[in-house]
Fold this protein.
Amino acid sequence: MAREKNIKNKPLKKDKNQITHTKVKRTIKKTPKLKDSDSKSAIIHEIQNEIQNSDNLTLTILDNLIELSSQDCDEKNCSLQLQSIFAEKFNLVESQFFFYENKSISADNLGNISEPFKTTIKSLEENGIIEWTFEKNEINFIPNLNIKTLDLFNRLMLVPIKINNENKAIFCAAIPNQNTEVKLKALSNLKNVLLFAALVLINKLASSSVSKSNVSNSIILQKIIDTAPIVIANKITSYFQKYMVALTKNINAQLKLALTDNEQLQRRIELSSEKLDLINQISSSISNNYRIERNQKNLIHKFILSSIIQEIISDFKPIFEQFEIKITFANDLIDEENSCMILGNKRIIKLIIAELLLNSIEAIYNSGSINILLYDNRRNQINLSIVDDGVGISPDLIELIFEPFFTNKSSDEHTGIGLYFVKHQLAKYNSKISIFSEERKGTTVKLFFNKFAK
């Protein structure tokens, strides 16, 4: 995505932070004097581990798949790259997509798999396990039923791939140990990731036919739209992750001082508790406000746009302070309740505005200003302008920024799907986006929303 900078931090899991927060507060209450330095260090270590060691596999693999889908390679090479990705990221012994036609999986595979693994999968088909997997339509972890290959493949993962409710393929993988299985089960978006991977492979298979290729491309683009909220939400989380790591360092410092300053002991504990409250508050805000569940994607609401903007500014306040960015918001709509009401998916609109603000933050990064203006253009539309004084965008790139997969950044974190998602989603509500920019002077993003007619 244009104007992004490289910030690599792992996203935070809400539940774990809440557990840690409660556990630490309980420990503080039970141990008012903090005499045991070993216990104190253990508490600090646990806080830092809970925050820093969260799972970002979904985002990383989506980045890999998006990059692979844009490469000019045939289906054989694509399949080999998929196997490499899954071996590295998921720690799978062997894996393969087997396409399903005429109620049978294809004996011909595109990647490099061993004969024992192929024999194992055929055994599953002969025993009706493949059909059973499609009927259940969920990820299944099962023991290997083939005695001849049991020593090689003890546990297997089967994932049905359905497109338009049609059984299209099945992803089969050999799992090395129980630990890997536990980690795979913990990935809530695993099935979507594998569906996306299958679509990438199908697109390569159909490349010889223009009509089939166009159909596959449309499916790929739709899947980008479906997965973009996950990518953007993780991007938002990474910013707050960095801020929360700074908070844990502050807690660490307060607890160390508490050990050497008995007079200020209670105050040090209170400050640590306040920081823990802030960590939990931020974590809750991210999960509640910037993550979209499947059943929330198609909801339509009528809401006051200025309220959404104020909520985002409030949520992002720690980030603006961290990067020394001055933020201003001017609402020039006179009758706010009647003239600022729009129709759309409230969560999607909030994610869109948050994404655009992050782009401005990345363009400034340290010390600058972002000005937000809401006004009526007298065409029954509400205009939202976001103006930053960042690095700007060169003229030769401005025409490409809405293209899927386009990014001028080399980092794996930048997928180039953010602005494509923004433009696509706004079009669903008959809204538009325009971007004007000048290098070294800044960028203006304008959104045009139709007023909700009562």
User: Anything to note?
Assistant: The CA atoms of residues 94 and 174 lie 5 Å apart. Confidence is low (pLDDT under 50) at residues 1-40, 47-55, 208-216.
